[in-house]
Amino acid sequence: MKRKMSLNLKLNQDYKTAADFFQAHDDLLLLVHEKPDGDALGSVLAAAHLLQKLGKTVTLVNDDPIPDKFMFLPLADRFQLPEQVAGKFDRVISFDCGDRKRLGRSASLIAESAHLLNVDHHVTNDKFGTENLVDLEAAATCQIVFKIAYQLQMEIDLDTATCLYTGLMTDTGGFRYSNTSEEVLLIAANLLTKGVSPYKIVDRVMETISWPQLLLIRAALDTLGRDDSGQIAWVTITRQMVDTAGGCDEDVEGLVNYPRNVEGVEVGISFRESSPGRIKVSFRSKYVVDVGAIALEFGGGGHARAAGCTLEGELSAVQEKVLARVGEAVRSNTAHLEEKE
Ligand code: AMP
Ligand code: MN
Ligand code: MN
C-alpha cells in the first residue's frame, strides 16, 4: 500500500544545476566508478529511470561486470563494456566517482568538449566535471539522486526507489555507520512508502554470502595482525587464498570490517593482492583518523572513515609502508586528543 509522506529537504544551487542538466540534455552517457558497489549502481540506475521518464535516451557503461547480487536492480542488465560502445558522447553524467581515473577505460567514451556532470559525495572529489554536484554531507550518492528528483519535483516509482534504497543501505552499512543521518532515515522511510521491501534487499545484498566467501573469511581471519598499541589491525588476502576458496574479487569486500570492529582498534585495514605486484588497500576508521586523506596520499581516495587505494609492490613492502603511515596518523591523533584533555 502506498502512502504519502511529506519531506522538507535542503537544496543548494548545485542541485538546481544538476536538475537543469537532467532536463536540458539528451543522449546521455551514464558512468560510475570501476568495480561498482551498491551506491554506484543504485544511483546511476535510479538516475537512468528518472532520465527515461523525462524522455531521454541513456547509455550505461562500466569497465567491470555487474556483481550477480545487484542484477535484481531494474535496468542492471543494460550495462555495456566500453569496448561494446561506438563513438564518443558530448553529454555525460558520472555518479559516485571522485576522480576521472576511477572511471577507468570508460572515460575514453567522453568527447573532449563534453559537458560532464559530476554527482558525488567523496571528500577527495577533485571536481573533474564541467558541472559538479559534490555534496559532502550526503551519506550516499543515492541520497543526492533522490534530492535531484525532489528538485525536479518528480514522482519516484518503485523501480527507482529500489535502486535508491539499495545504495543508501550499502553506503551506510545497513544504516549503522556514522554517516547515518536524520535525512538518510527520512529518505529511506520515504522510499518505503513507494513499496520498497527492505528485508528482501538487505537479505540479497548484505546478509547472503556465498560459500567461497565464507571460506575466504576463514582464510583471511588466519592472517589477522595487530600493532603494539592495539589501535591498528589488519587482514591480508593473497591471490592464492581467493583462488583456493573459489572466490572472486567481490568476495573480499567487507573483510576489512573484522579488524576494524575489534575493541580498541581505531583503523582496520585489508591488504589484497589484486594482481601480481598490485595491492589494493582498504581502510576503515572508527572515530578520529582521516583515512581518506591517507588514501589520497597513496594515490587513492574515499571518505574520512572509509577509503582505499592501490599500490604497486610486494605485499610485505606495501604493508610496511602503509602501516608506518597509519601508525603515524594514529599517534598524532591520539596525542592531539591527549592535549585537549
Ligand atoms: P573500499 O575500501 O574499496 O570499499 O572503498 C572505500 C571507499 O573509498 C569507497 O567510498 C570508495 O569509493 C573509496 N575508494 C576506494 N578505492 C579508491 C581509489 N583507488 N580511489 C579513490 N577512492 C577509492
Ligand atoms: Mn562507491
Ligand atoms: Mn558512495
TrEMBL record:
Swiss-Prot/TrEMBL keywords: Hydrolase
Where are its TM segments located? none
Classify the source by domain of life: Bacteria
Q: What residues does the DHHA1 domain cover?
A: 250-324
Q: Which GO molecular function annotations are given, in alphabetical order?
A: 3'(2'),5'-bisphosphate nucleotidase activity
Gene3D superfamilies documented for this protein: 3.10.310.30, inorganic pyrophosphatase (n-terminal core)
| Domain DDH per the UniProt entry, residue ranges | 30-167
Q: What is its EC number?
A: 3.1.3.7
Give a yes or no for keyword Transcription in this entry.
no
Which InterPro entries did the record assign?
Answer: DDH_dom (IPR001667), DHH_sf (IPR038763), DHHA1_dom (IPR003156), Oligoribo/pAp-PDE_c-di-AMP_PDE (IPR051319)
User: Which protein are we looking at?
Assistant: Bifunctional oligoribonuclease/PAP phosphatase NrnA
What organism, scientifically named, is this protein from?
A: Tumebacillus lipolyticus
